[in-house]
Write a structure and sequence with these properties.
mainly beta; four-stranded antiparallel β-sheet; 106 residues; single chain
Length: 106
């Protein structure tokens, strides 16, 4: 049987600026699909601040190492792709609490 599917719902994530954020997608497919991550409809390039790891045979984790509200806030989703097509996850929102909110004014 040839197929591809997403087995979980992405969860919204809220972190403080500078903290790490993680999204996990569980999937199945034959042949084994590739997983691509997107933020606001643009594919996410892997760089020093982003890590994409396979945590199990059917699980891929997107980690944003040190969140910056200006760069990383937004809607994230995953695409699971193999030669028979693709399936798209739900969108999950990353909310980053800016450090400036915690300043006290006298």
């Amino acid at each position: 049987v040839l197929f591809r599917s997403i087995l979980n719902k992405l969860e919204n994530v809220t972190v403080n600026e500078g903290e790490q954020a993680k999204f996990v997608v569980k999937f199945s497919g034959k042949p084994k699909p590739a997983v691509k991550w997107f933020k606001d409809d643009a594919e996410i390039p892997v760089d020093d601040s982003i890590e994409i790891t396979e945590t199990a045979d059917d699980e891929i984790c997107l980690t944003i190492k040190s969140c910056k509200s200006s760069e990383n806030s937004g809607n994230y989703f995953a695409k699971v792709v193999n030669e028979f097509g693709e399936v798209v996850s739900n969108k999950a929102t990353l909310t980053i609490n800016s450090k400036q909110r915690f300043l006290f004014r006298f």
